[in-house]
Amino acid sequence: AQKITQTQPGMFVQEKEAVTLDCTYDTSDQSYGLFWYKQPSSGEMIFLIYQGSYDEQNATEGRYSLNFQKARKSANLVISASQLGDSAMYFCANPPNFGNEKLTFGTGTRLTIIP
Amino acid sequence: EAGVAQSPRYKIIEKRQSVAFWCNPISGHATLYWYQQILGQGPKLLIQFQNNGVVDDSQLPKDRFSAERLKGVDSTLKIQPAKLEDSAVYLCASTTYQETQYFGPGTRLLVL
Predict the structure, then answer these.
(1) Taking CB atoms and an 8 Å cut-off, how many pairs form between chains A and B?
(2) pLDDT value at position B19?
(3) Which terminus, N or C, of chain B has the lesser number of Cβ atoms within 10 Å?
(4) Do residues B57 and B48 make contact, with C-beta atoms less than 8 angstroms apart?
(5) Using 50, 70 and 90 to split pLDDT, how confident is the model at A29?
(6) Which residues of A touch B33 (CB under 8 A)?
(7) A70-99 pLDDT, tens per residue?
(8) CA angle in degrees (0–180, nearest 5) for A91-A96-A100
(9) Mutate to test the interface with A, among B9, B29, B37 (most CBs of A within 10 A)
(10) What is the pLDDT of residues B39-77, one digit of tens each?
(11) Distance between CA atoms of A30 and A97, rounded to whole angstroms?
(12) Nearest by CB to A108, which of B42, B98, B102?
């Protein structure tokens, strides 16, 4: 069974600072993907970034990057130069096998950016 | 490109009443999911469709929940009768093969 662990229930970060949100996963699959989603108070899940297990480089998308450490089974999200609009819940998710399969989500981290 | 549409956005009902949610996926996405997100938790899959067929409904409480996707496009999720513990956000997502799942805005259900 897939398991995603996010150990930080909440974080407070000063605006413009970088922040790292932790995610560890448990899978025996050789090929898999890790997703990060942002959920603002409006409720919609917004896709941020994806890392494939065979990708040689860490994924980056604008201010978002993944610190992917395959041996440690961690895929931490790094947000650079945080903004007030980054305040939201952040979820790490992993499908059983890469493809159009269900996502298993962690419990999320509530990030609050302080002006 | 239009995103995943859901309606209604909010619904308040009393326990033992019925409720239905609607989802229209992104055009061309064959796979559609319904997730339930209880406050303070991550979303949990209720049912997955591939076109108009059910792929996974192992976590759907079938005694009260039902879902359909008759023409392989829109989908409806129904709860009958609702219980207090059904209060949650119901998220619809869609994808095409080996692509990212995109979510709709969700329906917030409150059962009193």
Answers:
(1) 57
(2) 98
(3) N
(4) yes
(5) confident
(6) 102
(7) 899 999 999 999 999 999 999 999 876 655
(8) 85
(9) B37
(10) 989 999 999 999 989 999 999 999 999 999 988 899 999
(11) 9
(12) B42
β-strand A10-14 against A109-114: which pairing, if any?
parallel
Report yes or no: B73 and B17 within 8 Å, Cβ to Cβ: no
In this structure, chain B runs to a length of 112
Residue with structure tokens 């974080």? A11
Q: How confident is the model over A14-39, as a mean pLDDT?
A: 91
The identity of residue B99, as a single letter, is: E
The burial class, CB within 10 Å (0-12 / 13-18 / 19+), for B64 is middle
pLDDT at A99: 56
Rounded-to-integer distance, Cα B31 and Cα B72, Å: 9
SS3 state of residue B84:
helix
Cross-chain residue pair A100–B100, CB shorter than 8 Å: no
Q: What are the tokens at B106?
A: 């969700």
Confidence of residue A54 (pLDDT cuts 50, 70, 90): confident
